[in-house]
UniProtKB/TrEMBL annotation:
GO terms for molecular function: acetyltransferase activity; dihydrolipoamide branched chain acyltransferase activity; lipoic acid binding. It catalyses: N(6)-[(R)-dihydrolipoyl]-L-lysyl-[protein] + 2-methylpropanoyl-CoA = N(6)-[(R)-S(8)-2-methylpropanoyldihydrolipoyl]-L-lysyl-[protein] + CoA. This is Dihydrolipoamide acetyltransferase component of pyruvate dehydrogenase complex. The keyword Ribonucleoprotein does not apply.
Length: 461
């Protein structure tokens, strides 16, 4: 029979000191590395934010060791061993890799050694602690973490049956006892090295929370899928479509420089309105395009935009200025051109445009109308849109795209808000031949003529 010793004792350098007398030498247990386990979601490393222990501290199962921070969450690491911290592997804010040791823990001796550091019995206890720890002289064995769990849930340890070694009360014993009191059924859960922070003392137990009833599933209506019977087909490109593929493929080799601007056509709108009746009396429909074409020829030749074509690194200066107009026809995109614009008046250009539009609508444009162009305009605004990025038609070196005419508020010379007819223009130039400054100067002159159409009378030839 072993007689229980009453009094105070402490552990120093592996020896028991009982009432200031050396009793026996205690054998140290094995030192085990406590590794950082995989915390899921593909996280391979974490940052150590705070240590809750230091070297030499005594820990028990479920005691908090440290807090780590991943790129998704903050996790508190708890101990799975009872023992003494021998080494910390990382400083605060250091990066810890999954699978590497966090700390070394010297575990408690084996069962052949009587000493158990986790069991601390002392006669100096408060009345409240005495109520929980000792009833009618019966002492209980439990780790500090288990005692804390019992106190948080107002459970007397003397009423709990311990299933651990020598009747020690484990955490599972507390949870099972709590479940019996509340009538909850706790499913068995495996032990994890990494657990979320424990709930606050005032937070209600998960076992006391009411369970939510599952929402009944709603059966979706069955919808019959239509059966598609179409078949894929292959078509060889021919005619104008085949020519367009070759032309646009060649255009990909051209370094395009883009330039965009805004033109106030208010005065030109008034001029056309005055001339429209006269032109129709002669059987010709007068649009804005004859003015655009004539004014491009008027100043474009000064900047090498009209008569220059680039063929095999040779820059050809064309004497004839043939300005093309992109047309949307039943045969696809066609670009007939008005020949010798430098010799034609605005009215004569309108006559030629009427002829080409009639032939294009009936698919009767010939080779003579579709070849020999030196500059192209695209009137994309007749369909819609304000700005575009026109593609140069080789071997030409420039192209323009005209947006729709919009009525917008603008300031006049007296800072008054007036109604203005505004058109946006987008230019593209072959940057191997034409630089940005050249295109900007040409666009400015062309815009000035359109905004003051009466001034072109002085330069018309």
């Amino acid at each position: 029979m072993h007689k229980r010793l009453c009094g105070s004792y402490r552990l120093k350098n592996g020896c028991f000191i009982f009432n200031d007398h050396l009793l026996s030498l205690v054998t140290s247990g094995p030192i085990l590395p406590f590794k950082l386990s995989d915390i899921g979601e593909g996280i391979m490393e974490v940052t150590v934010k705070e240590w809750y222990v230091k070297e030499g501290d005594k820990v028990s199962q479920f005691d908090s060791i440290c807090e780590v921070q991943s790129d998704k969450a903050s996790v508190t690491i708890t101990s799975r061993y009872d023992g003494v911290i021998k080494k910390l592997y990382y400083e605060v804010d250091a990066t810890a890799l999954v699978g590497t040791p966090l700390v070394d823990i010297e575990t408690e001796p084996g069962p052949e050694v009587v000493h158990e550091e986790d069991v601390v019995e002392t006669p100096a206890m408060s009345n409240d602690e005495h109520t929980h720890q000792e009833i009618k002289g019966h002492k209980t064995q439990a780790t500090p973490a288990v005692r804390r769990l019992a106190m948080e849930n107002n459970i007397k340890l003397s009423e709990v049956v311990g299933t651990g070694r020598d009747g020690r009360i484990l955490k599972e014993d507390i949870l099972n006892f709590l479940a019996k009191q509340t009538g909850a059924i706790l499913p068995p859960t495996p032990f994890h090295e990494i657990q979320p922070p424990p709930p606050a003392a005032s937070a209600p137990s998960s076992a006391s929370m009411p369970k939510m009833k599952p929402t009944p599933s709603v059966q979706l209506p069955v919808v019959s899928r239509p059966v598609f019977t179409g078949k894929d087909s292959t078509e060889h490109l021919k005619g104008f479509h085949k020519a367009m593929v070759k032309t646009m493929t060649a255009a990909l080799k051209i370094p395009h420089f883009g330039y965009k601007d805004e033109v106030d056509l208010t005065r030109l709108v008034q001029l056309r309105k005055e001339l429209k009746g006269l032109s129709e009396a002669r059987g010709v429909k007068l649009s804005y395009m004859p003015f655009f074409i004539k004014l491009i020829r008027l100043k474009g030749c000064l900047f090498g935009l009209l008569g220059d074509v680039l063929i095999c690194l040779l820059l050809h200066h064309q004497a004839s200025h043939n300005i093309g107009l992109a047309m949307d026809t039943s045969q696809g995109l066609l670009v007939p051109n008005v020949k010798n614009v430098q010799l034609l008046s605005v009215f004569e250009i309108a006559v030629e445009l009427n002829r080409m539009q009639t032939l294009g609508a009936t698919g009767q444009l010939g080779t003579a109308d579709l070849t020999g162009g030196t500059f192209t305009l695209s009137n994309i605004g007749s369909i819609g849109g304000t700005y575009a990025k026109p593609v140069i038609l080789p071997p030409e070196v420039a192209i323009g795209a005209l947006g729709k005419i919009q009525v917008l508020p603008r300031f006049n010379s007296r800072d008054e808000v007036v109604k203005a007819h505004v058109m946006n223009v987008s230019w593209s130039a072959d940057h191997r031949i034409i630089d940005g400054a050249t295109m900007a100067r040409f666009s400015n002159l062309w815009r000035d003529y359109l905004e003051n159409p009466a001034s072109m009378v002085l330069d018309l030839k």
